[in-house]
């Protein structure tokens, strides 16, 4: 029966294609080829149940300026009820390509200020079977009038995501969402509070402290939101991999990096709690775990051995994994050094420089960047240091000399049993 149905499907598909070929006989060769391919794919999707019946587009409802780029995403639901990313399947069109174009992958390029009302340009995605959806983007360089923050609750629950909504209004009356890359957050009241690029507030504090949140966008400052920290509503947590599958053990090579992810159960949903959990180890020597919410869960294997890593939202909500660090080389730490073994670094007042701490392990041909796993002390207030990480996972310290100062600042680094110092010579 299976083979009979399969043969019948092939016959139906061939018949449909022959009909299409007959209808296209008067077209040019290129048009014929494109139309035949389209007809074949359309019939294949129809028979497999993959033909899209509805579309939704995200990424619009925002104002950008000439020279900016913006990525749209199209999601489709097929005749089986399954959802998939169809951003690269659909045909994209711009209502005003002179003001803003869009490529086959849904990326908008703003070319010039739109002369339409509020600078609106419409972008449309159309499927192979002519199902379409549109979204608007404003292309205009207009002053921001106001930025408004809001939240559904005045409580900031520990460990779990607390969403803050942003709304921006421009001088011409246009209202839209913000470009997260241009939004700056300010949080006061808790050392553990952190807001990610999407306006999600995390904190590991549940003691009832007050938090104050503000933001700035272009030249506009927002209203102040006030929160009171509260115990988590998360009922359980688990370590997960990139496919959100649970696991109980992790094997790393000495010097290898990994990012741990933790999901929590909240109102029958699985949510990311990685930035809000508390971290602990029973063997601190074998690995460094970043507790800064910006990089929470980043792990660097620093010494051979075995141990346990713990993540917790509360005393009763926690999980652990076993961690094993091995090396085919001898792998004994012999020394650490700064940048290219620098002992002194010259800086002008107000100037910044990048600092990296490297570890030399016996038997290793390359040194290992251990900047984030190192401690540091500065003997005065002439310079400040901030930990940063690039998309490539390259970690470094941004050291800045304060404006209008001069003199020497001694910065001492420690990593496991090793110590190294560097002197910053500051000129005004």
UniProtKB/TrEMBL annotation:
Gene3D superfamilies: 2.60.40.1080. Residues 51-135 form the BIG2 domain. InterPro entries: Big_2 (IPR003343), Invasin/intimin_cell_adhesion (IPR008964). Coiled coil: none annotated. This is BIG2 domain-containing protein. The lineage of its organism: Bacteria, Pseudomonadati, Pseudomonadota, Gammaproteobacteria, Alteromonadales.
């Amino acid at each position: 029966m299976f083979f009979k149905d399969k043969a019948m499907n092939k016959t139906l598909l061939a018949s449909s294609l022959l009909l299409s070929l007959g209808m296209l006989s008067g077209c040019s060769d290129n048009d014929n080829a494109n139309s035949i391919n389209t007809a074949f794919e359309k019939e294949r999707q129809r028979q497999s149940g993959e033909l899209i019946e509805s579309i939704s587009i995200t990424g619009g409802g925002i104002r950008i300026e000439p020279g900016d780029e913006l990525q749209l995403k199209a999601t489709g639901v097929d005749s089986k009820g399954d959802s998939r990313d169809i951003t690269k399947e659909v045909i994209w069109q711009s209502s005003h390509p002179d003001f803003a174009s869009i490529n086959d992958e849904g990326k908008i390029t703003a070319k010039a200020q739109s002369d339409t009302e509020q600078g609106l340009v419409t972008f449309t995605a159309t499927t192979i079977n002519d199902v379409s959806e549109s979204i608007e983007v404003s292309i205009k360089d207009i002053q921001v009038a106001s930025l408004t923050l809001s939240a559904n609750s005045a409580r900031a629950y520990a460990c779990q995501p607390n969403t803050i909504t942003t709304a921006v209004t421009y001088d011409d009356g246009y209202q839209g969402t913000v470009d997260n890359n241009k939004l700056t957050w300010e949080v006061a009241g808790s050392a553990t509070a952190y807001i990610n690029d999407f306006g999600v507030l995390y904190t590991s504090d549940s003691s009832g402290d007050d938090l104050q949140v503000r933001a700035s966008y272009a030249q506009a400052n927002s209203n102040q939101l006030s929160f009171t920290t509260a115990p988590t509503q998360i009922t359980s947590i688990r370590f997960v991999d990139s496919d959100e599958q649970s696991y109980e053990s992790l094997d790393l090579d000495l010097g290898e990096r990994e990012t741990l992810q933790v999901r929590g159960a909240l109102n029958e949903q699985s949510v990311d709690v990685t930035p809000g959990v508390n971290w602990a180890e029973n063997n601190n020597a074998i690995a460094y775990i970043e507790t800064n919410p910006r990089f929470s869960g980043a792990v660097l294997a620093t010494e051979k051995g075995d141990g346990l890593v713990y993540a917790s939202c509360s005393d009763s909500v926690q999980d652990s994994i076993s961690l094993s660090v091995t090396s085919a080389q001898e792998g004994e730490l012999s020394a650490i050094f700064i940048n290219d073994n620098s002992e002194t670094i010259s800086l002008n007042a107000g100037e910044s420089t990048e600092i990296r701490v490297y570890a030399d392990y016996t038997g290793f041909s390359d040194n290992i960047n251990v900047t984030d796993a190192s401690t540091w002390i500065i003997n005065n207030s002439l310079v400040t240091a901030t930990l940063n990480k690039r998309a490539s996972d390259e970690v470094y310290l941004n050291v800045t000399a304060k404006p209008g100062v001069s003199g020497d600042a001694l910065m001492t680094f420690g990593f496991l049993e090793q110590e190294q110092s560097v002197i910053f010579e500051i000129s005004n």
